[in-house]
Amino acid sequence: MFKVTLIDHEWEDLLIEESMLSEANVQFTVLQSRDKAEIIQAAQQSDAIIILYANIDREIMEAAPNLKLISRFGIGINMVDVEAATELGIQVANVNDYCVDEVSDHALASIMAAARNLFVYYEDTNAGGWDFKKAQIPLRANKAIVGLLGYGKIPRRLGQKLNAIGYKVKAYDPFISAGKMEEDGVVKATFDEIMISSDFVSIHVPLIKATTHLIGERELKMMKRSAFIINTARGPIIDEKALVIALENDEIAGAFLDVTEEEPLPETHPLRNLKQVVLTPHAAWYSVDAFREIREKAVRNVVEKSEGKSPTYLLN
């Protein structure tokens, strides 16, 4: 019998996973641990594993000769050594389309809230104030530029929504042609052009070695003092120490962060105390439909593998 172990999760129950795997006649075990030694022991007894945030490195995979598939709840795969998996003949799969509307909506909501100074006015009126001049004077949407870093499914959908409102949209992605972007009403730009010209910079690149601290002191100093940065991708893409300094020195107007370098963000982290920062707890993906799809599709990868098929969301 094909054996799968769920390494870690954050769900209240496992009814979806249990139902799908039982129907497929797959033996299902739950570990619920991110301890490396425990993961190795579980992987050794598994044909496939499902993960949420557990790190799966070469050592774990080399210790599990029967392991055939690693399926992840979600899009990002930075916690898996995909190169090692490929060398060892282990397939890696994710779920790359479960939250396109949710994350693009969250980024759009952040941009709109920043553009219309909603949180500045909220804090002022809650404190008894009533003065529209408390916030910087906003730009009309058709005079503002939104720069997208990355142009995959989510930023492309965000671009469509921004265009409908009237924003000017630019995007940086070395893998997408100017012609393709032009078809979507988006202007292809260099990385530096995005940082320099944008009123809102929205991050959508994957977290890999080359994008770790992609946004640091140099990049933040390039931005307009009136500009906002929005991150719904992965926390380590921004150097948070550099971001805190930039915000404390009013080098940029603010930041909307759904992700941080360390999650949960420590209670004493300075980002929690900066008025120019709006934090959400890695919630951009969250909706009724996305919550169901992320689970069903990650399990579907396993079921397909157990049936001798190629997983729908295979990466390598």
Automatic annotation (TrEMBL):
The keyword NAD applies. Residues 109-284 form the D-isomer specific 2-hydroxyacid dehydrogenase NAD-binding domain. PROSITE patterns: D_2_HYDROXYACID_DH_3. One of its GO terms (molecular function) is transcription corepressor activity. Residues 20-316 form the D-isomer specific 2-hydroxyacid dehydrogenase catalytic domain. InterPro entries: CtBP, D-iso_2-hydroxyacid_DH_PdxB, D-isomer_2_OHA_DH_cat_dom, D-isomer_DH_CS, D-isomer_DH_NAD-bd, NAD(P)-bd_dom_sf. It comes from the Bacteria. Keywords: NAD, Oxidoreductase. It holds the Pfam family 2-Hacid_dh_C. PANTHER family: D-ISOMER SPECIFIC 2-HYDROXYACID DEHYDROGENASE CATALYTIC DOMAIN-CONTAINING PROTEIN-RELATED (PTHR43761:SF1), D-ISOMER SPECIFIC 2-HYDROXYACID DEHYDROGENASE FAMILY PROTEIN (AFU_ORTHOLOGUE AFUA_1G13630) (PTHR43761). Belongs to the D-isomer specific 2-hydroxyacid dehydrogenase family. This is D-3-phosphoglycerate dehydrogenase. It comes from Psychrobacillus psychrotolerans.
